TrEMBL record:
NAD(+) binds at residues 9-28, 88-91, 172-174, 198-200, 216. Its EC number is 2.3.1.286. This is NAD-dependent protein deacylase. HAMAP family: Sirtuin_ClassIII (MF_01121). It comes from the Bacteria. Binds 1 zinc ion per subunit. PROSITE patterns: SIRTUIN. It catalyses: N(6)-acetyl-L-lysyl-[protein] + NAD(+) + H2O = 2''-O-acetyl-ADP-D-ribose + nicotinamide + L-lysyl-[protein]; N(6)-succinyl-L-lysyl-[protein] + NAD(+) + H2O = 2''-O-succinyl-ADP-D-ribose + nicotinamide + L-lysyl-[protein].
Length: 225
């Protein structure tokens, strides 16, 4: 039984009109990540953080999956082995394209989390600082996003899948954020063939057996074909 693990990053959603983080005019070139993507930043100024994610949630809901997302759906439907998509992205374009087996290791814009009691629920279109948690009623609602310094979701399942993988494919990620940036090493150590599909070689390109460069909307369908 073939086992395939696919890791996606912001680059797979770039051609859907959602910004990346580290390309020119990327999100982290216009926002200080320590102010909008850390628990400390949220404590300092909840409204600024909620405004940042409310805008991204609106963009995400207005965006549509692109041919790269759709190619992965075709692959999952025809794949005879086990296929898992691990995404660093917080948009839901994989699910809206039709992918079924998706793990969001950095959370999702479609979720809300209570900073006081840990309760999680579907996010409203707009989150406001005074929104009460449905479980403990305190006004500590925040986006269900894994910020820098927080522990990503599903790590045990992801590491187990990487240890058992026959192939690992990274799509549209710069390889700058850990622990995701180490996944090719993790999979390669377990004997997996590692392929990178990217617009430009990532910081961890040397960890891969093969690197193919180009826009995801072209090179992912070409790879799946
Ligand atoms: C943690 C949610 C403890 C926010 C994000 C070593 C080990 C472990 C941790 C660390 C370590 N060293 C440092 C750390 C700490 C830190 C970290 O990695 N810092 C970095 C800056 C050095 N990591 C953490 O804090 C993580 N937690 O470590 O917990 C732990 C310890 C050990 C083991 C487990 C746990 C939590 C990190 C999560 C932070 N949250 N996202 C939000 O989305 O608002 S991370 C942020 O970067 C993004 O959200 C995204 O998910 C992530 C990666 O970015 P990319 O997706 O790669 O996007 P980027 O813009 O960088 O690149 C785009 C790529 O696409 C480029 O390659 C480009 O060429 C390509 N591209 C562009 N257009 C196209 C394209 N490709 C194809 N087609 C196109 N059209």
């Amino acid at each position: 039984m073939e086992r395939l693990v696919i890791l996606t990053g912001a680059g797979i959603s770039a051609e859907s009109g959602l910004g990346t983080f580290r390309d020119k005019d990327g999100l982290w070139t216009r926002h200080d990540l320590s102010e909008v993507a850390t628990p400390e930043g949220f404590s300092r100024n909840p409204k600024r953080v909620l405004d940042f994610y409310n805008a991204r949630r609106a963009n995400s809901r207005a965006a549509a999956p692109n041919p790269a997302h759709e190619a992965l759906v075709r692959l999952e439907q025809s794949y005879l082995g086990e296929m898992l998509i691990v995404t660093q992205n917080v948009d839901d374009l994989h699910e809206r394209a039709g992918s079924r087996n998706v793990l969001h290791m950095h959370g999702t814009l479609e979720g809300a989390l209570c900073a006081a009691c840990g309760h999680r629920w579907p996010a409203p279109a707009i989150q406001r600082p005074q929104d009460p948690c449905p479980a403990c009623t305190t006004a500590q609602a925040r986006p269900d996003i894994v910020w820098f310094g927080e522990y990503p979701y599903h790590m045990e399942d992801i590491w187990q899948a990487l240890r058992r993988a026959d192939a690992f494919v990274a799509i549209g990620t710069s390889g700058t954020v850990y622990p995701a940036a180490a996944f090719a090493q993790d999979a390669g150590r377990a004997g997996a063939f590692c392929l990178e599909l990217n617009a430009e070689a990532s910081a961890v390109a040397p960890d891969f057996d093969e690197v193919r460069l180009g826009p995801a909307s072209r090179i992912v369908p070409d790879w799946v074909a």
